[in-house]
Specification:
This protein has two domains: 16-39 and 258-348, Aspartate Aminotransferase, domain 1, CATH 3.90.1150; 55-255, Aspartate Aminotransferase, domain 2 (3-Layer(aba) Sandwich), CATH 3.40.640.10. The longest helix has 27 residues, at 255-281. It has eleven helices and 13 strands. The N and C termini lie far apart (41 Å). It has helices at 44-53, 64-74, 86-97, 112-119, 164-168, 209-212, 226-233, 243-252, 255-281, 302-311, 339-348, and strands at 10-12, 31-33, 81-84, 103-107, 125-128, 148-152, 176-180, 202-207, 220-223, 285-286, 294-298, 314-318, 329-333.
């Protein structure tokens, strides 16, 4: 671990299960409020394109069309785009591409970036945002000598959407800021996104999993300067992005799909507001100002409540595997019909 003085909020790595994900909470017969995939399966138009793509899988994958479609969707150049086998591959490539650096992960956030850094042999510094500030990003907490910084926006699990200006404040010469925007297409209008801009020293990671129900397909991408993209591409295994994944990337980047995602985001926004209102009505603490299709809550005896919810048929995500949070924190995915869950939670509380 890197030595020396630490700013407030900065922590050395301590033991936590970085590989624990929401899918491990789900079981037979449980209503899934633990996984942040919004839909149970892809829409029929996407399923049709995926089925049709199977007739071409005898040939090696070609992601050029996917890259062009993603570039057009964000108003970028094609050489700014690297299609990846989901966000997880992007984090692995980024961790391997910068050996010998001082990486910082801003927590609480998705744990895959830190897991990838540790697997690549890095010493990792954690900057844990204080709950007293609503888990808002404070660029001053990040050590000045950090040269690889990971931050989520909106952040999983806090659901906090950081201002673009706060992320820009992290940028400095010799540093790469990696912004995980996996959930930004689930926020109406995609405010605070940096995806449309080629900003020196910024890489944006996107995923198609959450909105389109294709977690098993592994479809994501990186948007960055061409030099960063080429550095990552040089480490990417050949043909890591399958033909069906490339087809999904192109299909979900078309204007009609982007418009449909916006409609889904507005529905999720309304569903989340109803959920937050009900939670607060019976005294549940909701973290920050949620903007993503999930909320982070703190309840007394959180671990017991989570297990009791399983007994009555509901799976929620334990949050003590996110650095900076403890066992009283739980993450709840937003669904259209939450009444049964809310009644069950109210009874337990």
């Amino acid at each position: 671990m890197t030595g020396g003085d630490r700013a407030d909020g900065e922590n050395h790595v301590r033991d936590v299960d970085l590989w624990h994900h929401g899918d491990r909470e789900v079981g037979d017969g449980l209503v899934d409020l633990a996984v942040n995939v919004r839909v149970p399966q892809p829409p029929e138009w996407l399923l049709t394109e995926l089925r049709d793509s199977l007739s071409t899988v005898a040939a090696y994958p070609d992601v050029a069309g996917a890259g062009d479609a993603i570039a057009a969707r964000h108003g970028r150049e094609a050489d700014d785009v690297l299609p990846t086998a989901g966000g997880a591959e992007a984090f692995t490539l980024l961790a391997r591409a910068w050996p010998g650096c001082r990486p910082v992960v801003v927590h609480p956030q998705f744990t895959e970036p830190e897991a990838a850094l540790l697997a690549a042999g890095h010493d990792v510094t954690r900057v844990e945002l204080p709950e007293s500030g609503g888990f808002a990003l404070d660029a001053e907490l990040v050590p000045a000598d950090a040269d690889l910084v990971f931050v989520g926006n909106p952040t999983n699990p806090t659901s906090v959407l950081h201002p673009a200006a706060s992320i820009r404040a992290l940028v400095r010469p010799g540093r790469l800021v990696v912004v995980d925007e996996a959930f930004l297409d689930a926020v109406p209008g995609e405010p605070e996104t940096l995806a449309p801009e080629r900003i020196p020293g910024v890489a944006v990671v996107r995923s198609l999993t959450k909105t389109w129900g294709i977690a098993g397909l592994r479809a994501g991408y990186v948007l960055a300067e061409p030099a960063v993209v080429e550095r990552l591409r040089g480490l990417q295994p050949p043909w890591s992005v399958s033909t069906p994944a490339a087809v999904a990337m192109a299909a979900c980047s078309r204007p009609g799909a982007v418009a449909e995602a916006e409609t889904l985001a507005r529905e999720a926004d309304s569903d989340r507001e109803r959920l937050v209102t009900r939670l607060r009505d019976f005294g549940v603490e909701v973290a920050g100002t949620p903007r993503a299709p999930f909320v982070l809550v703190r309840v007394p005896r959180g671990e017991k409540i989570r297990l009791a919810l399983r007994e009555v048929g509901y799976a929620v995500r334990r949050a003590d595997t996110f650095p900076g949070l403890g066992p009283d924190w739980l993450r709840i995915a937003v669904r259209s019909d939450m009444d049964g869950f809310l009644d069950a939670l109210a009874a337990l509380l």
